[in-house]
User: Fold this.
Amino acid sequence: MLRDVKHNVSDGLLDFATPTGDGLHIKVGVSPVVSDTPIIVTGDMDAAMIKKRLGMSPLADAVMDSVQFGASRVYCLPVTATTAGTIGEVTRVGDGGGSMTALPIVETQAGDVSAYIPTNIISITDGQIFLESDLFFAGQRPAVNVGLSVSRVGGAAQTKATKKATGSLRLDLAQYREMEVFTQFSSDLDDSTKEQLHYGQGLMRILRQKQYHPLSMHQQVIVLVCAMGHVLSKVAVKDVTDFRDALLDHFEQEHSDLCRSLEDEKVLTDDMKQEILRIAEEYLAANAERFRKE
Assistant:
């Protein structure tokens, strides 16, 4: 169920209170049937919107910096809770307990996550996804900054297969970003540095995703195993995305049993990992003229 919670607050001065009200509205039930895991999304009110509603006045500046306005984004979060059974006339769909998830969206000023409002949001949430405009305009979409994005839930939110396939991905990406900055003005690089940069560029490429085309769990695992196994290091950076898509099609058509096992059991054994790498290497060798880097 997807519902856009509407409110009838005519006075712009009261808009800071709507996240709390909307969260309570959802909690008590906006429909006779509530899903197991509803998501409350609260958008950010930027400076331009505040000035438009309040006018160019000292009050507008006060609202933008006020504790009450900043904290209002946080107040909706404690409203989220575990749901179970029937609350009044509201019936939850499915068996067992459910949960409500809050997803506050905050715009940072010049990427400053240490400002008052972002730090308040960070302090009460289970993590944050930091999107960076420079990555977006460079074609890296979704433009997630791996270094600043954090999950306090950690591997507990991942399947065993995904957790094992990921390996040192986060660390490798962080090292690549540092090396990229360090070497961008250098024209004389040794072979080892070039290989590391090529490996990092390949990792960034596989994290690009077409809009409205999410990968299934087993597809993510296959791609991650190939990437962390340095199979993509043998592919030209410009061809990584095409190779990934072609390789996944090959797995779906020729090795559907392996895909089904990953999807159903959600476990990646050492034998399965070696099998994925073997298949990927053989596919690359068979299509060397198309994908192998010069």
Remarks:
- The longest strand covers residues 39-42.
